[in-house]
Write the structure tokens for this entry.
Amino acid sequence: MIRIGGGIPTVTLNVVNPIRQGSPASLTCTFQPPTTDGIYVYLEWGKTLTSSFDSATPIALTGYTSGGSQPTPVYSHTAHDPPEYIMTIDRNTGTSDLNISAVVMSDTGYYWCSYSSGINPRGRSSVPITVYDASFNSIKISSSSQSYSSAGETATLISGALYRWVCAVEGLIQPASIQWTLGDNLLHTSVNQTDVPSSEDASLWDSLSVLSLAADWSHNQEELWCNASVSSMNAATYLLLDVKASHNLKDID
């Protein structure tokens, strides 16, 4: 049976999505190659910011005649050395790979494989990629009355009063493991953690840990640390406690 190819290709992402910034990514396009010689084949990889193919930005493309020499890809993005995107194609198995050596935040989008052969109309399909920032820049400690944006800030407390602290780590590939320490002591009690989908990207997570702590004279000039970890990534921030005396004690949020 003679086949001139065509049809709708399929695109597969070969790594877990979302992808951590700086990690490699690989996509495979599977298409139906012609079984007879002399058929012109065209294959192109493109990218869009939405699921619509309109105004797709070309990434890499190639054209060849079946039965001829192995095709050579042509790259549309050459700003990187080596190129950010590397395309390979195997005309015998009907597969084309698009490899990204190290994804950056701007690589988030939909990746399209467009294919045609002979007189058949072009078919296309896509797969989304989401790149997440694993820098832990958003880790912070706050209370209901104040947010501490920098590590090492001083928090003034009243001895005997109860304080409620929140440590927030946002936009993670999976929930973080959060621990509190005071000086050299790991705090095991009065800690509650909540993990919720990120308000900015439902495929990512925000982890919130709430610590209730009664201030004591022994805490004066101690460091209250929030330590977060996800897989092999770690981050931390802390407050310097300045404990003062008061005759009017109350619980403070």
The mean pLDDT is 83. The CA atoms of residues 162 and 214 lie 4 Å apart. Residues 140-244 form a domain with the Immunoglobulin-like fold (CATH 2.60.40.10). The chain is about 0% helix and 55% strand.
